[in-house]
Design brief:
Keywords: DNA-binding, Transcription, Transcription regulation. A hairpin with a 5-residue loop joins strand 1 (17-20) and strand 2 (26-31). The chain folds into two domains: 2-179, Sandwich (Jelly Rolls), CATH 2.60.120; 182-296, Arc Repressor Mutant, subunit A, CATH 1.10.10. The protein has 13 helices and ten strands. The chain has helices at 2-12, 100-109, 132-145, 148-153, 155-168, 172-176, 184-197, 205-211, 216-227, 231-249, 254-260, 266-277, 281-291, and strands at residues 17-20, 26-31, 35-42, 45-51, 53-58, 61-65, 69-73, 77-84, 91-97, 125-129. The chain starts with a helix and ends in a 5-residue tail after the last helix. Strands 1-2-9-4-7-10 form a six-stranded antiparallel beta sheet. It is α+β, with helices and mostly antiparallel strands.
Length: 296
C-alpha cells in the first residue's frame, strides 16, 4: 500500500511543482531537488507525502513530515519550509484543502455537532504518524483520481472519507476546532479568516481585538499560541506573500503589487519585502518565474 500510494503520486504529479487533480481541492506536488529553508504560506489542509521529506518552521518549533508522518493544518500560517529531495528520489505529496464548512458538515453527519476543542497541538499545525486507516483512505482517493471516470463518480466521496479518517485520528481535534463556535482557538481562527479576506485594508491591533471581543493583550497571547507570531507581523507576512503571488503568477509590477496589498509607499514595501524574503521583489519574482517552480 505505501508503494502504491507513492507510485500513483508519481504518475499524477506530472511536472515540477503543483499538478491540480481532477477534483478541486486536491493537488499533487513534485520537487526533484532540495529547497533550502525559506518563507512559505501554509493553507488549511491535510498533506500526505509518498516520498521525500519536508520541514516546517513555525517560530521555535520544527515540524518534520515524510512518508510515515503527515501534516494537519487548521489555519493559514506564514512559516518557513524546507524540502529534502533529489532527482533520484523526488518529494511527492498529495494535499487535501480543508475549510470550516467541510469539517462542520462531516461532524454533523457523525452526530458530533458540538466539536471538541481540546487539542493535542496548541498551534495551528501538527505532524502526526500516518496510520493505516489514513494511508488506505489516501490511496483510494489517489487511485480514483488516476481515472477520469472514477474522478467524477468516486473521488468526492473518497475525499470526504479521507477527511473523516483524519478527524478520527490523533490530531483530528485540530480540524474539529475549525468548526467550533466557541473557545479561544475558534475566535483566533475566525480572525485569521477575516484578515485573509481584508488583508489590503488598514488594520490596527485594537480594531482586530474588538472584532473577536478580546483585549489587545489577550489577543496577542492567544494569537501567538496559534500562529507563533504577533497579529501585526502576521498581517505583514500575509501582505508580502500575496504580493509575491501577484508578481509571479499575475505579472504585476512591484509598485502595482505593493498598492494592491495595501502599501502606500513602494519603497517601504521593497524594504520590508527584502527584509522578509532576503531579496528584492523584482529579483525574487524573476527567479520564481524563470524556475517555473511552485511558490512554497
Amino acid at each position: 500500500m505505501p508503494e502504491e500510494l507513492k507510485e500513483i503520486m508519481a504518475s499524477l504529479a506530472i511536472r515540477e511543482g503543483e499538478s491540480p487533480s481532477a477534483l478541486p481541492g486536491v493537488t499533487f506536488l513534485r520537487h526533484s531537488r532540495s529547497q533550502p529553508r525559506a518563507p512559505a504560506l501554509y493553507q488549511p489542509g491535510v498533506v500526505i507525502l509518498g516520498q521525500g521529506r519536508k520541514r516546517g518552521y513555525l517560530g521555535p518549533e520544527v515540524h518534520a513530515y515524510d512518508a510515515n508522518n503527515y501534516l494537519v493544518l487548521a489555519v493559514p500560517l506564514p512559516a518557513e519550509c524546507e524540502v529534502i529531495a533529489s532527482p533520484q528520489e523526488p518529494m511527492l505529496s498529495m494535499r487535501l484543502d480543508v475549510d470550516a464548512a467541510m469539517v462542520a458538515d462531516l461532524l454533523l453527519a457523525m452526530g458530533d455537532n458540538e466539536p471538541r476543542t481540546r487539542l493535542l497541538s496548541k498551534g495551528g499545525i501538527a505532524p502526526t504518524p500516518l496510520t493505516s486507516d489514513v494511508r488506505e483512505a489516501a490511496t483510494r482517493l489517489a487511485r480514483a483520481l488516476a481515472s477520469p471516470l472514477d474522478s467524477r463518480v468516486l473521488a468526492p466521496a473518497l475525499a470526504k472519507e479521507l477527511l473523516y479518517r483524519v478527524l478520527l485520528d490523533a490530531q483530528g481535534g485540530l480540524l474539529r476546532a475549525l468548526a467550533a463556535r466557541q473557545g479561544d482557538f475558534a475566535r483566533i481562527a475566525d480572525l485569521l479568516r477575516r484578515i485573509h479576506a481584508n488583508y489590503a485594508t488598514p488594520m490596527e491591533i485594537d480594531a482586530l481585538a474588538n472584532q473577536i471581543d478580546m483585549s489587545p493583550a489577550t489577543l496577542h497571547r492567544h494569537f501567538k499560541a496559534v500562529t507563533a507570531t504577533s497579529p501585526m507581523q502576521y498581517v505583514k507576512a500575509i501582505r508580502l506573500h500575496k504580493a509575491r503571488m501577484l508578481m509571479v503568477a499575475d505579472g504585476f509590477g512591484v509598485a502595482m503589487a505593493a498598492s494592491r496589498v495595501g502599501y502606500e509607499s513602494p519603497s517601504q514595501f521593497s524594504r520590508e519585502y527584502k527584509r522578509f524574503f532576503k531579496t528584492t521583489p523584482a529579483a525574487d519574482a524573476a527567479r520564481w518565474r524563470e524556475s517555473n517552480w511552485t511558490i512554497p
